Fold Putative phospholipase A1-Ibeta2.
Amino acid sequence: MSATAAVTAPLRHSRPSLLNPNATATATTARPSSVNTRTHLANLDRLLVRPPPLPLPLRPKKTPADEPRAEVEATPDDDRSGRGGLLNALNLSTLLPFTRKPAADEMSPRSLAHMQRLLTLSPRPSPRGSIAAEWRRYHGEGAWAGLVDPLDQNLRREVLRYGDFVQAAYAAFHSMPSSASHGHGQGQHRTLVLPDRSYRATRSLFATSSLSIPPWAQRQSAPKWLPQRSSFVGYVAVCDNEREVRRMGRRDIVVVLRGTATCPEWAENLRTGLVPVSDDDGDDMSAQQHAPKVAKGFLSLYKTAGDSVPSLSDAIVEEVRRLVEVYKGEELSVTVVGHSLGASLALLAADKLSACLAADAESTCTASDGHRPPPIAVVSFGGPKTGNRAFADRLRHERGVNVLRVVNAGDVVTRVPGLATPATMAEGYVHAGGAELRLDSRDSPCLRPDAGPACCHDLEAYLHLLDGFAGSGRPFRADASRSVAGLLAFQRSNVKRAYLDRARVIGFEPATASGSGDGQYGYLASPT
């Protein structure tokens, strides 16, 4: 064992640390007021030594558009960049500099004690407890009653895994954003690497906009993929590890959808007029007035077919139906997960899947076999309002879809595209019913209390807050183990200065955004 390993290993033990003498105390035990941040920083300087250099995800070199790209292995942290971050994280603080305010950089002694462990690219998931006996409850039966607040540790782990699946979709998109034009629409995106190897990706998904960016509006300096109509938006995966299937009590099929990334997708986001979800509502004005409706732009991305790829709707239904047939006779579940725009597309997908799978089950079952379609749940991170009250009611009561909305209190995206008033409640936007898991950036020990809109909507910030959330009014978990490397790379301006300073001391330095606009970030280790 090296000298470095010998020094850093004790920090992973559960015994009390010099930085956090009260680590084993209960949540109600007050910290001694005499122990201030400066004392803990001094202790940190004595205990933290320079770790081995962290791996460097290399930025792919530019290649001509007509040449095939070499296969690149994407990492879950490689999901946003300087210019790409504006699109993916709704970086309003960049557009509106006056929204950024200075704040006092205070740092929790408890968080300092875990600094060395958290500054790693390999997150440590919480222990995998068996949920086989209650898997339907963890999948949303009963609207997650008794599991959300306080947050059940098994539910936390499951939701974190689904969030990491979305991170993998972002990473795969930015590693090869124009792959739709290379004929990968029917198979697996070749740069997709799932963070949990218990699941296997079975099909890539592409969303197509009905809008086209006119040539005069396309900047020559912009990446060629930015105005493309069809783009990789996610994937379908299935758990094919038998041990994990037994732990979960069923085989899980997951549909994963990322948020906004291209110009046509942003343009579709602005089309907020409500339109009927189905085309078979007839010409009866009364029926249309009370029909389930959703935002026109979301529906366009969901139903429009591309030149070489099917519509997102058709691709999802086709692949999930195929997997249900492959694993016929087993206990199955379908989970649709998305962030931002992907959260709205997830609701549309769940609505369609529920109707199709119910029809399939009804046509194939007999009166005696009692065959039921697999339950469908949606896990939404930072999702906007998608449709009207009729759509939300149909999704919950008629379709039987369980929706878990993970919301950051400071995320403005969750409050758009409009506020429903008493006068417009019947036709105004409302959130889909279900359970809400409400987080707050101000609870984080390492994020600034005035974190900007970009940080409040950022998926990595969501997962960081989720990992530390114990319940309303409770402190950030002392044993939260998710790496903060992603926050240091993607939300550096929103991380408290004490964390940035300590990261430099121990040899970790987040990279600056790439100036080439290719959507890649790296991690820089200080030279030894």
Notes: The longest helix spans residues 341-364. Residues 384 and 416 are 6 Å apart (CA to CA). The longest strand covers residues 199-208.
